[in-house]
Amino acid sequence: MKKVLLKTESLSKSFSSGGAMQHVLKNIDLELYEGDFTVIMGASGAGKSTLLYALSGMDTPTLGKITFGGQVISDLSPDELAVFRRRHCGFVFQQIYLIDGMSVMDNVLAAGLLVGRDKKVLADRARELFQAVDISPETQRKFPTQISGGEAQRVGIVRGLINSPEILYADEPTGALNSQTGLHVLDTLTAFNQRGQSVVMVTHDMRSARRGNRILYLKDGVILGECNLGKYVAGDAGRHEKLSAFLAEMGW
After folding, report:
1. Residue 173: Cβ within 10 Å count
2. Is 134 left (phi over 0), alpha (psi -120 to 50) or beta?
3. How many domains does the chain have?
4. How many angstroms separate the CA atoms of 57 and 76, rounded?
5. 3-state secondary structure of 237
6. Beta bridge partners of 168
7. Is residue 71 a contact partner of residue 5, using CB atoms and an 8 Å limit?
8. Separation CA 117–CA 168 (nearest Å)
C-alpha cells in the first residue's frame, strides 16, 4: 500500500476576469503517493499549472482543503506557506530563474540557506547532486550566463532537490529546450524518481509524459481520467501505445 503524501478534498480555484468568474479548478479530489512520478496533462487552459501551484502551496484554493502529512496547508498564511514550500517542496520551472550575479553553486546553496541549513552540509549534498546530473566542478563555479540551457535546467533540478523535498514539482521542464537537451533533463528526473524521489510534472508533451507511472488528464478544471503506466522502462513500445490510447479516449 503506497503512502499518501498529499490529499485534496473538493479543491476549487476561481478567478474574476472582466467582471465574470472563471472556474479554473472544480471540486478536485486527489491523492498523491510517495515514490510516484505523477504527470498532469490536458489542453491549454485546462488548469494544469493552476493545479500544480495549488498542490505545492504556491497558490491558495478558493474552496476545498489540501492536506500534506496531516497538516492542512490550505489554511496556512502566506508566510507559513513560504516556509512550508522551502522545507517540503522542490520546484523546476520552464524558465529556470537562476540569479545571474551568483555562481551556479551559490544559486543552489542559497535555497538551502533560506531554511537555515548548515553551509558545509549543504555544499556536500550539492556536490553529490551535481555529480548525479553530470555538472562538473568547473561548471559549478561559472555564472548562469556562461552555461547552456540544458546545464541550467539540470542546475535547476539540483536546486529543487537541495533540501531533500518530499515532492519535486516540475512545470513544463523541457518546454524551452531542444529535443536532445530535453531528453537529458527527462533522464535526470527519471533517475531521481527511480531512487525514490516523488515527482509531479505538468506537460503537454507525449515523450515527457511517458516517464510518469501515473497520468492524470485534466479537462475544464476536472480530472477526466487517469492512466497507470507502471515503472518506466526505456524502449517499452507498449507504454507509448497505452498512453496514446488513453489520450485518444480523453479527446487529446
Report:
1. 29
2. left
3. 1
4. 9
5. helix
6. 90, 199
7. no
8. 19
Write the single-letter amino acid at 14: S
Spatial contact of 135 and 112, defined as CB atoms under 8 Å apart: no
Domain boundaries, position 92: 4-250
| Nine cell digits for residue 176 | 524551452
Q: What whole-number distance in Å separates Cα of residue 75 and Cα of residue 33? A: 22
Return averaged pLDDT per consecutive 10 residues of the chain, 252 residues in all. Answer: 94 85 92 97 92 94 94 93 92 88 95 87 95 95 94 93 95 88 91 96 94 97 96 90 96 92
Q: Hey, is 77 helix, strand or coil? A: coil
Which residue type occupies 32? Answer: L
Sign of torsion over alpha carbons 49, 52, 54, 57: negative
Which residue is it, cell 498529499? 6
Give the end-to-end CA distance of the chain in Å, rounded to a whole number: 31
Question: At which residue does the C-alpha cell 467582471 appear?
Answer: 19
Q: Domain holding 105: CATH number?
A: 3.40.50.300
Q: Using a cut of 0.85, tell me whether the model's pTM lies above it.
A: yes
